[in-house]
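Hi F.,

I've been meaning to write this up properly since the lab meeting, where we talked about keeping a consistent format for the predictions we share between groups. The idea is simple: the sequence comes first, exactly as it goes in, then the structure tokens exactly as they come out, then a line or two of notes. No screenshots and no reformatting. I'm using this chain as the first example so we have something concrete to point to.
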Amino acid sequence: MAGAYDDRDGYIWMDGTLVPWRDAKVHILTHAMHYASSVFEGERCYSGKIFKSREHSARLIESGRLLDMEIPYSVDQIEEAKYSMLKANGWTDAYVRAVAWRGAGEDMGVSASRNPVRLAVAGWEWGAYYGDAKWQGAKLDIAKWKRPSPETIPTAAKAAGLYMICTMSKHAAEAKGCSDALFMDYRGYVAEATGANVFFVKDGVVHTPLADAFLNGITRQTVIGMLKDMGLEVVERHIMPEELASFSECWLTGTAAEVTPVGQIGEYHFQVGDLTRKVSDSYEKLVRA
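Output, unedited:
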């Protein structure tokens, strides 16, 4: 599948119905377009099975709740929607995007309690998120923006509005020849990339930022469990940016990123080492098990 995302063959599930791809539209006065009242999930289907599918569906509902936006579908109904979309398109390996938003209705201002909450599930066939970096090691810029305090935003929600600085930071990174950008949080600690969590290795111990100001990714949690099953020590803690010089390996985790090695962050360089490759291979086996 190729071409613009609004001009493709196939089907998208919208509000309980499979709709031809080009007919999956919303009104210009959709509340989410003006006020970012939208939450979403990114998932991957491997050999006909969506990895951690129910966890993603449950998080979508929770993200809606955190935005005071009750999604009118259960986990079971969202699961049925995802698999019906895949079946209609004939896919067994694909990226899956479920999105819920406040639609057009009686309200068109900051308040939108009378507007319907809508749900759609789309998908597409997608390879490695970072291209060749999946094997060679991604190069990251350091973003000028910072992840804000949990007192200012619902950091546990996968909400569209929280990705505004991600888009800007990724554009700036790409202009410098980088694949992505690394954020610090509001306190100056290392946080995450624009759409992935980050891990580091030092003397055989794995270190990862404490998820207290950003989304605790499902892939992040999966990889931490894998590492512990391997008998490795995993330390979740606050990491200062100057510590980057002391780490030997680094990788990113996320549904789109899967496990992607990092070769450089700003002026700091890392090996695409044995542990990174082992984690990447183990994750690949797990999602296809």
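Notes:
The CA atoms of residues 102 and 116 lie 6 Å apart.
The radius of gyration is 19 Å.

If this format works for you, I'll send the rest the same way.

G.
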